[in-house]
Design goal:
Layout (H helix, E strand, L loop, with lengths): L2 H21 L1 H17 E4 L3 E7 L2 E6 L2 E4 L5 E8 L3 E11 L5 E12 L2 H6 L4 H18 L3 H6 L1 H16 L4 E12 L2 H43 L1 H15 L11 H6 L2 H13 L1 E2 L5 E2 L11
Antiparallel strand pairs: 1-4, 2-3, 2-5, 6-7, 7-8, 9-10
Helix pairs in contact: 1-2, 4-6, 7-8
């Protein structure tokens, strides 16, 4: 009984008691009957509620928010439907996927009643029916899906479940807002196998990236070698720079062959080649070098 009806009933009962005691018993009885009729006929629905009313076994009306009255003994409120969004959790345990992998899936459905008349008259218990339909649809979806798609394409699976459940519950006046899969649990042994597979895929991708980097580096080395071949001075400067970089560390000792040191002096190399090309053989077998002008740097 709503607060307004309770207040009116209390007022008329108090009046009936006062009238019966101080004025007339029959007048008090009349006020008592009025209080009883008010208590049985005056109803109030909240903004989210729908009252389904039958009159002598037939649908009379569906009342919404506010105060309304019914005829006692002729009218009956058979259902009070909540029009707010409801949530129902459901699951499927050890359901086989299309590739015969047992999985445990937990999901949740968001729905609300948009037709109170159908929800009250077309089905006995629409809440229980939604739960059963959701579980059946979930198992059907799992059986028609591969494990990989079930794990990776959650949104597609959610949309498929929403459509299937919505089609089955529409005749009951139920509108499905959304379905969300919360968890997909697979066997531990399969988890280990999938983890190894994922690790192998990552190693493969890393090797491919490393190979591409090596190929790019090799190409740059070939390009640098071609540049150094046409410009020996650039190679010498690079060698000197490498030596400088390696000797920056305090206390470092670098051992270099004398041939490497000689290769860094272009004038010494030029002189050695000139001497080798212009030396003459003496009659007694001794070598005699021709008089050559020395470069200013070597003098």
């Amino acid at each position: 009984m709503n607060p307004i009806t309770s207040f009116l009933v209390f007022v008329f009962l108090a009046a009936a008691a006062g009238m019966g005691y101080f004025v007339n018993v029959y007048l008090g009885a009349a006020f008592f009957v009025v209080a009883l009729v008010i208590g049985m006929s005056l109803k109030m629905a909240n903004v989210w509620q729908k009252f389904v009313i039958l009159r002598m076994g037939r649908l009379q009306s569906v009342k919404g928010a506010g105060l309304f009255a019914i005829i006692p003994l002729l009218d009956a409120v058979v259902a009070v439907i909540d029009g707010r969004i409801q949530t129902t959790g459901f699951n499927a345990e050890q359901a086989l996927t299309k590739d015969t992998v047992p999985v445990n899936v937990d999901a949740i459905i968001f729905w609300h009643v948009h037709d109170a008349e159908k929800a009250a008259l077309a089905i006995t218990n629409y809440r229980e029916a939604i739960d059963r339909v959701a579980q059946t649809s979930l198992r059907e979806m799992i059986g028609s899906s591969m494990l990989a798609s079930l794990l990776s394409d959650r949104k597609d699976a959610d949309e498929q479940l929403k459509i299937e459940i919505g089609q089955k519950t529409a005749p009951w006046g139920i509108l499905v807002s959304s379905v969300e899969i919360r968890d997909v649990a697979i066997p531990v042994a399969l988890q280990d196998a999938m983890s190894r597979q994922a690790q192998a895929e990552r190693e493969k991708q890393a090797r491919v990236i490393l190979g591409s980097a090596e190929a790019a580096i090799a190409g740059k080395f070939v390009e640098a070698a071609n540049i150094y071949a046409g410009h020996p001075e650039a190679l010498q400067l690079r060698a000197m720079n490498i030596i400088y970089e390696t000797t920056k560390e305090r206390g470092a000792t670098i051992l270099m062959p004398s041939s490497m040191v000689d290769s860094m002096n272009p004038y010494a190399n030029t002189l050695a080649l000139a001497i080798a090309g212009n030396e003459v053989l003496k009659p007694n077998g001794a070598l005699k070098a021709a008089e050559l002008p020395l470069p200013a740097a070597a003098a």
